[in-house]
From TrEMBL:
Intracellular or extracellular location(s): Membrane
Organism in which the protein naturally occurs: Stephania yunnanensis
Keywords (A to Z) from UniProt: Fatty acid biosynthesis, Fatty acid metabolism, Lipid biosynthesis, Lipid metabolism, Membrane, Transferase, Transmembrane, Transmembrane helix
Major localization class: membrane
GO biological process: fatty acid elongation, monounsaturated fatty acid; fatty acid elongation, polyunsaturated fatty acid; fatty acid elongation, saturated fatty acid; sphingolipid biosynthetic process; very long-chain fatty acid biosynthetic process
Protein name in UniProt: Uncharacterized protein
GO cellular component terms attached to this protein's record: endoplasmic reticulum membrane
A molecular function GO annotation: fatty acid elongase activity
Length: 273
């Protein structure tokens, strides 16, 4: 059983021969990324405006078991990606595919987890599962649509978070950024949100130290962009949370823009490597 699972999740020829390419991989171009995000945001806004001003519908649209089925599907996909990434990472470390040459400092599993050597190409086991993770981000885009159809307002913060997660997953692949192993693993493993901030901060510090002291990390530019984006999101969340505390007791509203941010949404917005 375990041998069969290992084969299908880390040793299958399709996984071993995978290569991220604008010409060979589906949905792997900058044009598709920008166009799809633009269409999604436009469609979300049109749905919100149609329900609010044209149809003037106040009651939620019944969705039946659709949201639950979608959540179940996403859970199964996340579990598969996590299992595949775990087995693939173990296999890559075993095969020494990304270890530094003997002329460099010896690479430990933790160093490999945070810092791919310069010149690493987006090919092989780990990048295959990172690619599937990237594709799965588009399936998550249905969640804000469900929120709109339930007439819970326009979930601006969640829309922004989902778009950022897609851009981040794309950058991981485009620039062979090692933080994908860290980010995809924590997301796919369903780690709780309690330590999200500390996990992200610790991972960022680790990447920076390894880049400065161990001869550089591949895709450091993409890592820097993601770090800045993380900082912007964190500032926005803190600002929103402070305002919410100040206006506590002021009563709720309805029908407008939904800016409520749960702890799970906050952690999701911070997963951008």
């Amino acid at each position: 059983m375990m041998m069969s699972l290992t084969y299908w999740l880390s040793e299958h020829p399709s996984i071993l021969t995978f290569r991220w390419s604008h010409t060979q991989s589906h949905f792997a171009t900058w044009w598709f990324l920008i166009t799809s995000i633009s269409i999604y945001l436009t469609l979300s806004l049109l749905v919100h405006l149609s329900l609010t001003h044209l149809l003037r519908r106040r009651r939620p649209i019944p969705l039946g078991p659709l949201p639950a089925a979608h959540s179940l599907l996403m859970s199964l996909i996340s579990a598969t990606i996590f299992s595949g990434l775990l087995l693939s990472s173990v296999a890559e470390l075993r095969d020494s595919h990304w270890l530094y040459r003997r002329t460099r400092a010896h690479t430990t599993p933790l160093r490999w987890l945070l810092c791919f050597p310069p010149g690493t190409r987006p090919a092989g086991r780990v990048f295959f599962w990172s690619y599937l993770f990237y594709l799965s981000r588009f399936l998550r885009l249905f969640r804000p649509i469900f929120t709109l159809l339930r007439r819970e307002g326009l979930p601006v913060f969640r829309l922004f978070g989902h778009v950022v997660s897609i851009v981040t997953a794309f950058l991981w692949l485009e620039f062979s950024q090692s933080f994908q192993v860290w980010g995809v693993g924590w997301e796919g493993g369903g780690v709780g949100t309690g330590g999200c901030g500390g996990r992200e901060c610790g991972g960022n510090v680790g990447v920076l130290l390894l880049h400065l002291r161990r001869g550089g990390c591949n895709g450091i530019g993409a890592w820097g962009f993601n770090s800045v984006l993380n900082g912007v999101v964190l500032v926005r969340f803190v600002n929103f949370y402070v305002k919410k505390l100040r206006s506590a007791g002021g009563g709720g509203g309805g029908g407008g823009v939904n800016t409520e941010v749960s702890s799970s949404t906050t952690c999701e917005l911070e997963r951008k490597r």
